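Hi C.,

You asked whether I'd gotten around to modeling the 244-residue construct. I have! Everything is below, sequence then structure, no commentary in between.
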Amino acid sequence: MKVSLFVTCLSEMFYQNVAKDVVEVLERLGCDVDLPGGQICCGQPAYNSGYRKDAQKAAKQMIASFENSEFVVTPSGSCAAMFKEYPELFKDEPEWHKRAEALSGKTYEFTQFIVNVLNIEDVGAVYPARATYHTSCHMTRLLKETEAPFKLLANVKGLEMLPLANNYDCCGFGGTFAVKMAPISEQMVDEKVRHVEESNAELLIAADNGCMMNIKGRIDRKGKPIEVKHIAQILNSRTAEGRK
């Protein structure tokens, strides 16, 4: 099965190891992974800020970049959800609307692809830890994916999953929201960190780099002894020491 990696801006600039973990897991599961050239930002910041024409420019570049892909997989539910917005973005341009629908239909968030397309729930991962999981807004509310991450984590040997109070609450990142509404965003992420602490977890797992960056940043600034990792890092661990 041929899979194209939609690496995302945050993975490319800040979390390159997450992208590598995604590729290694997919390859171990039998996928032939490529990285199409020409991919840029998906246009979500512009789209969410009301700059529709700028978002369309980015979207056209991304549609062209992944036109020949069989499947598109990304380590971000937020960015995958943006691809799902492309058909609406081009509702008044029939040709681009058709091409946008084709891309939307073959795009999946990383865990969603493993569970729902590859039909695999146990990737052979080993990661002894007490952990809790942050459910990101775009993944649960827009992609409607609520089960895939938990199915995969349930089969990680040594991993004890603990419940997270109010796990459905936003972490306060929201892309441009964290910049435009910084005081409110800070209160939201503080509440999220408090709930993580109350769970008694030593590790917070997330499936979206934006959320991970926001929560980890706050945890680090507060000096809390809690690790934060992307789910791909957990699924790519093959030893009791958390190594590949």
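If it helps when you're writing up: The chain has a mean pLDDT of 94.

Thanks,
B.
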